[in-house]
Amino acid sequence: MQQGWQVRNGIENSTVNGSTFQARELTVHQYAAPAAEVRWPVVIGRIPPRATAFQPRAELRRAIDEARGEYGTVVLSQVLAGGGGVGKSQLAAHYARAAVEAGTDLVLWADAAEPSAVTELYARAAVQLRVPGASGEAAEQDAERFLAWLAATERGWLVVLDNTTEHTPEELWPVTSRGGRGRVIATTRHRGAASTGGDRTLVDVTTYSPAESAAYLGERLERAKCARFLDEQAEELAEALGHLPLALAHAAACMVNTRRGCGRYLELFRDRSRSLDAVLPARSGADGYRGPVAAALLLALDAAQQEEPVGLAGPVLRLAALLDPAGHPQELWGTGPVLEHLGRVRGTPVTADDAMEALALLHNYSLVTLTETSHREVTLHALTARATLDTAPDSTRAGIVVAEALLELWPTADYGVQGLAATLRANTDVLTRHGPTGLIQRPLGMHLLLFRCGASLVEAGLYATGIQYWTHLATTSERVLGGDHPDTLAALGNLAQSCWEAGRTDEAMSLQEQVLADLQRLHGSDHPTVLMARNNLAATYSEAGRIEDAIGLQEQVLADRRHELGADHPDTLTSRNNLAATYLEAGRVEDAVGLQEQVLADRRRVLGGDHPDTLTSRNNLAVMYLHAGDVERGLEMLRRAAADLDRVLGPDHPSTVLARENLLEVAGEPQPEAAQDSSSRSPSSDAEPGSAV
User: Fold this and answer.
1) Strand 369-370 relative to strand 378-379: parallel, antiparallel, unpaired?
2) How far apart are CA 513 and CA 496, in angstroms?
3) Would you give the DSSP letter of residue 225?
4) Which residues pair with 111 in a beta bridge?
5) What are the Cα distances from residue 100, in Å, to 48, 157, 263?
6) At 504, is the secondary structure helix, strand, or coil?
7) What is the rounded CA–CA span in Å between residue 252 and residue 52?
8) Where would I find the beta strands (DSSP E) of 118-190?
9) DSSP helix/strand/coil, 50
């Protein structure tokens, strides 16, 4: 039993209450030694109760147990590290309860958030266990005696240090155990050097697996007699919540208390006008989780803000929150727009090293995760991102900064870097779904990032997705900027191109004729965007069988482009490629072969041998050789074109697939008319950001 007094006495060296000495004013704590012998086993501290629908998390526990056994008795402490709400304490409590049930001699549970509280608990344990020399008069000395007893005793013991921090003193960690009979399990949000060492091993605790999320929701709602709320959208709800135990617990409690099913609750959760705390309200009954969810997720941010580089953790997290939770390129933090923005926010210049140190700091505090996944080196939980944005609702300036940084990272052409391009598209998609981010502003127009992302979809052969993308962008642009704004017409032109690539020729033709008429009305006949619109309409005429109309238009465009842009401009080369293909359609095989040979030579010289446009010309020329009766030459060129397209663009790209189909047709039935012509315009040439295609 702990007793405490505060006494006032002006007599120096007087005795108060027998064994307590005081001079002037002091506070004295004394632990009365138990009168009887210790009755084993002993539990000290309060182990949290088992969650209502506790998930055993067998795979994670296997990792924890392997961490203990991998180094024999060397690794005394397993440190369970992870962000807020991933269930670290419940896992530790599971081990503590299991130890109690197994009859372990001593199980001690300490809330390690406040070091002095751990010292007091150790001191109380020393007295309760009748540790030699423990007097109950000096907490620090008694705590040291307790730790020495842990190291020397032959009894089995488990010490749980819940919620340790980077400031938890080294002297509070048990460091050894005689015969390996003792064990420490610690939980922490901190993944830095303070949580690792010779006697500790770090175990990352992440979110539930989809199966665990489903099991949790099912059991939690069943126990509340609300199984009827577990509808067909339960899996989608768990995915939206990021499988975070904290979020699932609050969501289940909210569903029980408001009598809503998973589908209805999911609608509320996706309503971005509501804050995270509004859709995951703090209330009892959430399996022990209390308090606002946003505060729980961002608990460590204030501490991170105070560490070097001081003042950068918050601004970095607010930018990261606008990006794809599944990951963005680490190189983004060395771009000019990001460094300039961080410098403005902090008030002093910021270098790329400063930004990376801030990211590492956020990683150490489990607010982001740094991975080795190429192009997705920086990840964070979607709810952490939402909580961050809730605390900084004005994201317009930050959104523009992120857009400019993504655009700076985007290569001129996607071929050869398909993985990076896919990541940049995903991050652009997430950015555009974050409320007002300033990417479409009147009268400025649409940010170039939006055009680059759409062009990338076409380059990747994702034509159906491109149609959806450009339809949405054209509609939004018309609403915000007006129907005659150049960016609205550019979006419609790109929509037409996506329709053409997808084989929806009539839709493409209708859109292109509309765009061409509007552009001629606004700019006259010689404007570059008008020439591009004519070029694209001519290709569509050819696809629709209007060969003579196509040839007339293409010859006019080619002459104008030669005059305006020069013979070697990529757009001029595209016009020559398309005209050659149309000559072939008209039966002018000799004209087609001669022109395409010139195009291939010029594209090799100007663009390089591996550029997709060059490979397209090789495929087209091979088809033309077949039509001309030069089967052996055409077949060999087809083989090389198919192999190079596979290498450069990947096996699933439509151009690669078409080249393989051509090869298969020719090899199986070598009639020239069986081969197909890939005379599509190169997206990298014709789908320039900000221009009509």
Assistant:
1) antiparallel
2) 10
3) T
4) 162
5) 13, 10, 41
6) coil
7) 11
8) 157-164, 182-188
9) coil
Residues 296 and 289: beta-carbon distance below 8 Å: yes
Cβ-contact 359, 316 below 8 angstroms:
yes
The rounded distance, in Å, linking the Cα atoms of 55 and 86 is 12
Cis ω before 309 (30° cut-off from 0): yes
89: Cβ contacts below 8 Å, ≥ 6 apart? 48, 162, 163, 187
Residue 76 sits at φ, ψ, to 5 deg, of: -80, -35
- Residue with the two structure tokens 């081969």: 675
- Residue (of 524, 327, 290) closest to 422 by Cα position: 327
Angstrom distance (rounded) from CA 99 to CA 80: 17
* Length of the chain counted residue by residue: 693
Across the strands, what pairs with 158? 107, 183
pLDDT of amino acid 466: 95
Query: Is the sign of the CA dihedral 214, 216, 219, 221 positive or negative?
Result: negative
Can you tell me the mean pLDDT for 513-534? 89
Q: What is the pLDDT of residues 161-173, one digit of tens each?
A: 999 988 889 899 9
Fold of 450-693: 1.25.40
Which token pair is 282? Answer: 């703090």
Q: Which of 349, 452, 345 is nearest to 404 (CA)?
A: 452
**Position 539, amino acid:** A
d(CA 84, CA 280): 14
pLDDT: which is higher, 651 or 454: 454
Q: Report the C-alpha gap between 493 and 104 in whole angstroms.
A: 73
SS3 112: coil
Distance CA 231, CA 88 (A): 29
The residue with tokens 């003193």 is: 169
* DSSP class of 29: E
Token pair in block for residue 304:
């991170």
Q: Tens digits of per-residue pLDDT, 197-223?
A: 768 889 999 999 999 999 999 999 999
Can you list the pairs that 139-146 forms with residues at least 24 positions away whose Cβ atoms lie under 8 Å? 139/29, 142/31, 143/118, 143/119, 143/172, 144/171, 146/122
How far, rounded to the nearest angstrom, does the alpha carbon of residue 530 sit from its chain's CA centroid? 40
Amino acid at 409: L
Q: How far apart are CA 488 and CA 471, in angstroms?
A: 11
Residue range 454-492, pLDDT digits in tens: 999 988 889 999 999 999 999 999 999 999 999 999 999
Residue whose pair of structure tokens reads 């419940």 in the numeric block: 90
486 has which bridge partners? none
CATH architecture of 33-202: 3-Layer(aba) Sandwich (3.40)
As a whole number of angstroms, the distance between CA 479 and CA 596 comes to 43
Torsion angle (degrees, nearest 10) of CA 516, 517, 518, 521: 120
Please tell me the distance from the alpha carbon of residue 151 to that of residue 164, in angstroms, as a whole number.
21
CA 311 to chain centre: 23
For residue 21, the SS3 value is strand
Structure tokens belonging to residue 27:
């506070």
| Distance in angstroms (rounded) separating the CA atoms of residues 329 and 531 | 37
Question: Among 163, 208, 222, which residue's Cα sits nearest to residue 188?
Answer: 163
pLDDT value of position 674: 37
CB contact at 8 A, 268 and 279: yes
pLDDT tens digit string along 562-575? 988 899 999 899 98
